[in-house]
Amino acid sequence: MRIGIVSDTHGKSKRLAKALELFAARGAEAVVHCGDIVSADDVAMLGGFAGAAYLVAGNMDRHALGSLAGAAEKVGVTFAADFLAVPLGDGRHLAVTHGNLEELLDELIRGGQYAYVCPGHSHHRRDERFGPTRVINPGALYHPRDRHGESVCLLDTRADTVEFIKL
């Protein structure tokens, strides 16, 4: 399965639109947003993606959980406040959480029950393994805090590869 992973868009709609177009062009079957989407309009944009769309709330989304959840329900985006398990179609799951809840993030990584754990929050790209779990942070579309600039990534679960893409 090919999954587009994005995080920390902070209402930057044009950047999110570009990322979704890129994911579609590269054959992504699903898109995962790791939080801090901020805008209900951007949730609707996620709902327009041709494949499945998943979204967790970030720390900057806490004030608008109700409106984000309502927008997600309206357009068919699977939404959760803290954590989602995304089925990969082969019996495995990808865990998505924003990353600001450090105990939850640590539990998801160290628990070993998820093939992939995808946090956002740090605005830094990350790709590392902890036992059977691969931790992937796509970076950020707003104020990246590393030298890579604004980025997203594409995960291919069949090949177990991650491609980071600078926007």
Question: What labels describe this entry?
Answer:
167 residues; alpha/beta; 6-stranded mixed beta sheet; 5-stranded mixed beta sheet; 32% strand; globular
Description:
The chain is 25% helix and 32% strand. With 167 residues, the chain is of the alpha/beta class. Helix 1 runs parallel beside helix 2. The longest helix is centred in the first third of the chain and has 13 residues. It is globular. The mean pLDDT is 96.
The total beta strand count reads: 11
Report the span from N to C terminus: 22 Å
Tell me the helix content. 10-25%
Tell me about the biggest sheet?
Answer: 6 strands, mixed
Q: Outline, from the CA principal axes?
A: globular
Low-confidence stretches: none
Number of helices: 4
Strand order of the largest sheet: 4-3-2-1-10-11
Mean pLDDT: 96
Q: How much β-strand is present in the residues?
A: 25-35%
Computed CA radius of gyration, to the nearest angstrom: 14 Å
Q: Determine the structural class based on helices, strands and strand pairing.
A: alpha/beta
Secondary-structure element string: EHEHEHEEEHEEEEE
Strands, helices and their partners?
Layout: E1 2-6, H1 13-25, E2 30-33, H2 40-47, E3 52-56, H3 65-75, E4 78-80, E5 83-87, E6 93-97, H4 102-110, E7 116-118, E8 125-130, E9 133-138, E10 151-156, E11 161-166
Parallel strand pairs: 1-2, 2-3, 3-4, 6-7, 7-9
Antiparallel strand pairs: 1-10, 5-6, 8-9, 10-11
Helix pairs in contact: 1-2, 2-3
